[in-house]
């Protein structure tokens, strides 16, 4: 990547895309595709309990990486990783429990996994 100029940022490509297809290359045999070595693509446990909030109607963006300072919602802190927020649409106002540990098997909602990590 070139400093001072806009260039392809592989970390902005959805996880399901093949980065090589867009010109990204592996750095040092790692799977980080050109990201800085200190920016690990690991989920950060934001908290070990769910975030119970009232939402809707409308769309919200659930933070998948755990780095957001606006939990459980995305604030863009995933920049530099391959994570992207999960869009969730609610048709009516309701109270929900969003996963805080980011290890749920039923994203974005809490399934109790936090009690086992």
Summarize the structure.
By secondary structure, this protein is mainly beta.
* Overall structural domain count: 2
Q: Which regions are unreliable across 5 or more consecutive residues at pLDDT < 50?
A: 1-38
Number of strands: 4
Q: Given the helix and strand composition, which structural class is it?
A: mainly beta
Helix content: under 10%
Beta strand %: 15-25%
Mean pLDDT: 77
Q: Report the order of strands and helices.
A: EEEE
Tally the helices: what do you get?
Answer: 0
Rg result: 16 Å
| Major sheet attributes | 2 strands, antiparallel
Helix and strand topology:
Elements: E1 51-55, E2 58-62, E3 86-90, E4 94-98
Antiparallel strand pairs: 1-4, 2-3
Describe the structure.
This protein is mainly beta and 117 residues long. The protein folds into two domains: 38 residues, no CATH class; 78 residues, no CATH class. 0% of the residues lie in helices and 17% in strands. The chain is built from no helices and four strands. A two-stranded antiparallel sheet has the order 1-4. The protein has a two-stranded antiparallel sheet with strand order 2-3. The chain is globular, with a radius of gyration of 16 Å. The N terminus is likely disordered.
